[in-house]
């Protein structure tokens, strides 16, 4: 992070028997957005500021002795369930750092690219609900922990996250036209479980009553099919891919 430091030195003479000079030194540090991050007065008191993703000031941390500060040690861990394929419907990314007294914020990197780009900055919580993700897709993410001095104190490795393939709603058989010897079907009116997905094709299984189902057509783009064999009584299962 780019920082700009400005130091002021004020010299004042005191009236008395002995002429003395006192120096009151203040140093101010700013980030790339010209926001105050650190103010040091007389090299003794340090005022540190951290901002969330909306630009709100979150933490004001005072150290009586600047030289006594030691960056905290922490380990960022992920829950076991995120190592397995997850439901793409607004999943929650979460992590844990244990108990720590020092204020910490997090930058979350997430996306389909590897390495992932910055997704959220200045998080004060250890979880985030994402938008609806693509099904059957690989994502990558990592978390960076930053202390009140805007120093990176921990950064995880890039982790792979895979989403499940969300199947569409089951199609509904509309009609069997005995005269034209055709079958037709449609999708239910309710919204598809995966708004980012679309039906690619249909497989059609058919058999006479009492007989095992057999695949009679696959990768059908339309919602109807003309049978090559005339059947009076049939049992049909039509599945969407």
TrEMBL record:
Lineage of producing organism: Bacteria, Pseudomonadati, Pseudomonadota, Gammaproteobacteria, Oceanospirillales
InterPro entries noted in UniProt: FN3_sf (IPR036116)
Annotated signal sequence range: 1-23
SUPFAM superfamilies per record: Fibronectin type III
Superkingdom of the organism of origin: Bacteria
Keywords: Signal
Source organism per UniProt: Zooshikella ganghwensis
Protein name: Fibronectin type-III domain-containing protein
